[in-house]
Design goal:
With about 260 residues, the chain is an alpha/beta fold. Helices cover about 40% and strands about 20% of the residues. It binds adenosine-5'-diphosphate.
Length: about 260
């Protein structure tokens, strides 16, 4: 009996359950991948253990943004081992599962199965998994809702009306699946001209905040349209890993997730 008690006492405490947060958008190109990578880096800078699942079958870009593109995940006991990055965030991407440069043309069940492999991987002590979903409301999203039940979802949109209508559709999908909507993020609002400093709004401004008021879905923050953000992503040196107002914009949203 004493031996048994000692064995129980020696056992490491059970890790807290991992929180899966899905990042979705109504359509492509609104900055969902950019936000996912930078939120992950911002959370890691705050001392959180974070993993990124890049489920965007149409354009997996996390290995580029987080600079671990050339690396292939290994497997152990039939499960993938996430690929570390130098930003303190581990990544598994649809892009890691296919030959570089090859288009992914998977049908629903295959894509759902691939998502399962990325999520049910050796995530170790990761407390939070941010899942960069494909845009829209397709098979991968359904598989995400039904099989992997995220703790919550974030929807990214530009302030443009059309993007907002699509974002609303994405939000409805999560609501139907009873996934709590953590909030909306407005991306690409407020462009500061690098020459004269004047702020203009190519895609409008404030539309997402208005949508938040109209729907009751919380507004998490606004990321400006900035050449640096695009250049940082292309260079594999995410903006959130640096200092300055843009890194702070990502950090502010990350703080709202951390509570
Ligand atoms: P999505 O994942 O929604 O398809 P991405 O994150 O890939 O969108 O962004 C699309 C393009 O826009 C990329 O080239 C990215 O670097 C750029 N981008 C995203 N957000 C911003 C921003 N706030 N400022 C400037 N460029 C941005």
């Amino acid at each position: 009996e004493e031996v048994r008690v000692a064995m129980i006492a020696d056992r490491a405490p059970e890790p807290a359950p991992r929180r899966i947060i899905a990042i979705g958008s109504g359509k492509g190109g609104v900055g969902k991948s950019t936000l996912t990578a930078n939120l992950a880096v911002a959370l890691a800078r705050m001392g959180r253990k974070v993993g990124v699942v890049d489920a965007d079958i149409y354009g997996p870009s996390q290995p580029t943004i987080l600079a671990n593109k050339g690396e292939r995940p290994k497997a152990e006991d039939g499960k993938l081992i996430p690929v570390p990055s130098k930003w303190g965030v581990s990544v598994l991407s649809m892009g890691h599962l296919v030959e570089p440069g090859k288009a992914i043309a998977w049908r629903g069940p295959m894509a759902g199965n691939a998502l399962g492999q990325l999520i049910d991987a050796h995530w170790g002590d990761a407390e939070v998994l941010l899942v960069d979903l494909p845009p829209g409301t397709g098979d991968v999203q359904l598989s995400m809702l039904q099989k992997h039940k995220p703790a919550g979802a974030i929807i990214v949109s530009t302030p443009q009306d059309l993007a907002l209508i699509d974002a609303q559709r994405a939000a409805n999908l999560f609501e139907t699946g009873k996934i709590p909507l953590i909030g909306l993020v407005e991306n690409m609002a407020g462009y500061a001209c690098p020459h004269c400093g004047e702020i203009s709004d190519p895609f409008g401004r404030g539309g997402v905040e208005d949508a938040s008021e109209a729907t009751g879905i919380p507004f998490l923050g606004r990321i400006p349209l900035a050449i640096d953000i695009r250049e940082d992503s292309d260079a594999g040196t995410p903006t959130a890993a640096q200092d300055g107002p843009q890194a702070e914009a990502f950090a502010a949203i990350a703080r709202s997730l951390s509570d």
